[in-house]
Structures
1.
Amino acid sequence: MKDMMPKFDLFQPADIETALKLLDKYGAKAWKMAGGQDSLDWFKDRAKRPDAVIDLSGIEALKGIRETAAGLEIGAMTTLAEIAANPIVKEKFGLLATAAGRVASPQIRTVGTIGGNVSQDARCWYYRSGLDCYRAGGNTCYAGTPQGMNREHCLFGASRCVAVTPSDTAPVMVALEAEFVIRSSKGERVLPADKYFIGPAVNITHMTVLEPGDILMTIRIPSKWAGAKFYYEKVADRNTWDFPLVNVASAMKVKADGVIEDIRIVCGAVECVPRRLNAVEDIVKGSPQNEDTATLAASSAARGAAPLNFNHFKIPLMENLVKRAIRDS
Amino acid sequence: MSSPRIERHKLIDRAFHWAMAAAMFALLITGLAPKLGISFEWLLIHWVAGLLLTVIIVGHIVRALFWQSLKSMWFTAADATAVSSLLGKDVGPKPGKYSLAQRLMHHAVTLFCLAAIGTGLVMLAKIDSPLWTRDPYLISAEAWGLVYVVHGLAALIFVSLIVLHVYFAIRPEKLFYLRSMVFGWISRDEMTANHDPALWTDHTSRHEGQS
């Protein structure tokens, strides 16, 4: 990392309309900055050189947690620390509070936002180093080679690029069936979480559907899973401050007799998008929540995995996390 | 009574043409649409269509070598006369089965199609598939750069060629050629008006006197 950023024009709009106009004006040369925890690294590394930085932190409409008749609305610029400490989130959607509290370090969570966390870019070493890889617009993946440093990379869904989603909260959004409200000068659109994240087969240079003129406004979490049995666990090399090697988020409804009525279970850091484990869900629905069910489900968690040279360890890790999620929710 | 019909394209050749067209459109749409901001899972469709096009082209080459008249696609001294006549705004001599413009179009499509297919086949080494494992070290980084440039350039030139081809195919005075690529025939009147029957090297008459 170098110590001086290339110059850019900094804009700090106070309302959405002004921000959208600026985004339209600068197009792909604009950079939307939320908490800035990742942006400044990119600039200092000189791997991203925007002409204009649009700092969204002054837009009050993008902040706050609101309870609605349909569930919960969280402004995209709400900080992770605020979400982790919010009593409504903790009471109804403890899964999200836990995941938000596991992101990075307390200092970063105080500034980092939920919108920035779910929309963050890949952490692949080669991409971050400014190499001309597929994700950077080139025609080579350096991590997917036999000698490549691919310990942190994907088990599923590789399409030339082998990067994974590094987000701690993205799997939670898919598990809770969240909706993402996106605005541009053309209007507003609402996407389910599993459509918000995109893999390299769809667009190799983007992790989300956000286009240059788009702003993620709000994340809506429906009340469907409020108060369900949740499980979140993140395994990282350093527990104090690191990206996940694998994380798991599950929301489960269990009948009085202990039978699993409904479940959504999602793993992060194993694919470019949060990976919903449909086979696991199908196996455990209608079965009692116990060790046997968890063991059976775990055995199918990594079905279809295509490990790279140095990330085979993610398969048993993923299986064990799924087992614990089913058994210990 | 209308003019007798002359077979211009056999069923198998029409099938080759339309199969090629479908594969090329699939390749161009899947290759270019993502560049225009339309996101979808294009890669699988692209390389499968590319392999299909390769098989079709190989079939066409084999058929052209052994069952068709290569001579009908050659350039002759008469073509020089045709060009000089056009420059002098004279009508010039009539061509054989294919006009000079049609042969030029065919050869341009051949050149850029082979360039796109050749580079595309090499690029398959960059991806995994059920049939092979990727090997990005197949050629040097510099050679990869060249492969990508040639592939992209061929694709862009292809777009221009297809626009030209479709434009001339749907011009009113050329519509009988399009019909012949659908139904296989042109009328004897159309043939004699636009071609020299003596130079039409591989025609066989069909349904003469029936229509």
Note: Chain A has a mean pLDDT of 96.
2.
Amino acid sequence: MTTIQSVELRGITKRFPGVLANDNISFDVRAGEIHALLGENGAGKSTLMKILYGLYKPDAGEILINGQPIRIKSPTDALRQGIGMVHQHFQLVPPFTVAENVALGLASSREPLTDLDVVSQRLRELSEQYGLRVDPNALVWQLAVGQQQRVEILKALYRDAALLILDEPTAVLVPQEVDELFVTLRKLTDTGHSLIFISHKLHEVMAISDRVTVLRDGRVAGTVATQDTTQKDLARMMVGRDVVTVWDKPECPSEMAVLRVEKLSALNDKGLPAVKNLSLSVCANEILGVAGVSGNGQRELAETIVGLRRATSGSVKVLNNEMTNHAPAAMIAAGVAFIPEERMTMGVIRDFTVQENAILETHADPGLADGVLLNFGKIQKHATRLVREYDVKTPTLDTPVKSLSGGNIQKLIMARELTRQPKLLIAAQPTRGVDIGASEYIHKRLIQERGRGTAILLISEDLDEVLALADRIAVMYEGEIVGIVEPNTPVDELGLMMAGATKGKSEK
Amino acid sequence: MKNFDFSRLNPIIVPLIAGGLGLLVGALMLLALGANPLEAYAAMMQGAFGSTNSLANTMVKACPLLFVGVGTCIAYRCGVINIGGEGQLVIGALFATAVALTFQDAPAWFLVPAGLFAGFVGGAFWGGIAGVLKVKFNVNEVLSTIMLNSIAGFIMTFLLTGVLIDPTTADKAIKIPQTQRLPAASDLWRWVPTSFHGGILLGVVIAALIYVLLWRTTIGYRIRAVGFNPKAARYAGIAVQRYQLLAFLLSGALAGLGGAVELYGVTPHRLFSEGGTISFTSNAGFNGIVAALFGSLHPLGTIPASFLFGALLVGANSLQRTVQVPSAFVITLDGLIVVFVVASQIWAQKRSVKRVDEARASVVKAETT
């Protein structure tokens, strides 16, 4: 291993059109140290690391290794200097074995033949040394996510990386895997490796790092030794103001709750826990906003409530009827409407016409079909009304939905869902990617719907939207509700909660 | 009609042009073989359409293609693929054989409907196997239906050399794998002296009924919803797997019915086999799929498409006889037309995507101005 005693970044500045991503940042990491880089999304963490790894060229500033200024023009350069990176999205070839993935791009010791046996042998030694249990002959696509990450780390170690940059390494892991990863990271520092640990999760940073550098808006908000700081201090540095107060307005009384979710758990598509023991309730005439950085289980929560995803435990009650794991058809019959996050792939059938999409759930209703025969006269009347009432701009009713704009498709979905006069509406990211006009219109409709007495669960990562519409705001983080606050809570505080700042507090 | 949108005729025109191009390449091959293409194609036309008899023969050839083709449309519209027409034809015919041989003395008014229904059920059973495998165990239906074709063929040969064998040949040294002639009461109505039989009319009626099912009923709406977007269909409360299974059952049932019709309607009115091959179907299980493609996977489009393919099959035979080209040419011509038609479908699809993009652009433009 090439020894790196210290890596230092001095006065790094990087400007993108309209954004100052890194503003005079200085940062250093020493041998045997885990230095955490903490900051909200967009604070400049990734940009800084991409500069260090040779993917971006800084506008100003310099990089020093062991006190010597060097230039890193490409990832190959970075590797040559002993800098390795474990990307959040793995760079592996799934049909290849672990050894083949590691050997990829390296010269064989006996060209033109491969030397996979040599690679495997060395991999076994490395695995042994750092507790990274992986079979060199296993096929990558058959490995669990945590194991794939080990392959990525092994890849870097195999290339003699002395400094490892780990970009949000825990984002894809289950808690046990996080514990195992932390053990490995400790072994790495014991053998003189330096680690840069990128995260926006405060408790992990507290658990693993030796020092923390907090970035805010492209600048260094401070560098502190972990043992001298607290989660609260770090949170303050991240946002630049004091930490949240959790509002204790009582939950809506159970006899009035239209939706009552209790201790609900569900898995995501990869089979990892996405919703964890989550409870919430929504009353009639109320909008409960669920705020959170996307990917914290919001999509899974919505899908579990409406019966599209299996709840592994817990219960969903609609109007005091037990409806956990009921089929979507039963939820629709019970008066539950759903505006899905995946508008194009779930909310509409793109090849169906406007008219056909308008009757997706209700095509067999007596008002639209005579027995088993569709009544096109009535269907046309129905669709005409929806298009007019909800201001859907479409050339004709027979136009395929795929030729409408996103905003008009969303208005059509909204029309279809609201015209059923639901008792409960679950609206997931209702205005994402929708133009401003349609967006305002959708907001207006949601407020109207609340006035009509509907209970609305509004899931959105657009904080302004949640703040403007919600009567109460539940902040979701890593599959849990970390707190319920009132809508006059400042954005910064919500942002902090979304990063998990009050997690420890709400668990007490 | 002054603003008639001619692009609506594309589903008809495009496959016709593609078929024509196939014939054109075929003409070049005929030239290379030293035959006069004009003479050859004239013989082909004559063979397919030249007389009442040849026209009837064309329609008889088209009949099983129509049944299989309409079944293919149902599966396709539900987003599943059924390449098992061949096996479903065979099992349908076996079921119909069983009925005819069990009730040898039954009157026609019982035997014909009962036998056709048995064929329908047999095909549904065979298609349903692939459906259950797909829905319950996520087995790829292309593989399972193809394999079920072989299984059906071997079952038929096994039965034809065993329990179903014609009793009059059973004792002879050379056992012909075929049944006895089925009771005359099971024969479909025939327009004597031509070979035209009532099953052809039944096929046209069924194609129309399936059109109504797919586009005019709630069941068809759900089948098509599942076919276009199973995720959205599930979101809308449709039991996706149930409809996929239904599509397999129906698709297989129509092929099975086609097998029963072929058996009851066409001389020699008996099930037969030649070694391991399923000569009884003369490849209708596959040609029917091509006919469906030729008909833009629409049940009504499949009617003329089957007819054209029937004409090709009948006409190519007389072409071969008249101009003396190798029999392989007939298969080659068949294949050429398939290649051109399938390619034209892909081309039309890509083109429609482009048209949608243009339409969207114009809508957006209209909104912003």
Note: Chain B is about 75% helix and 0% strand.
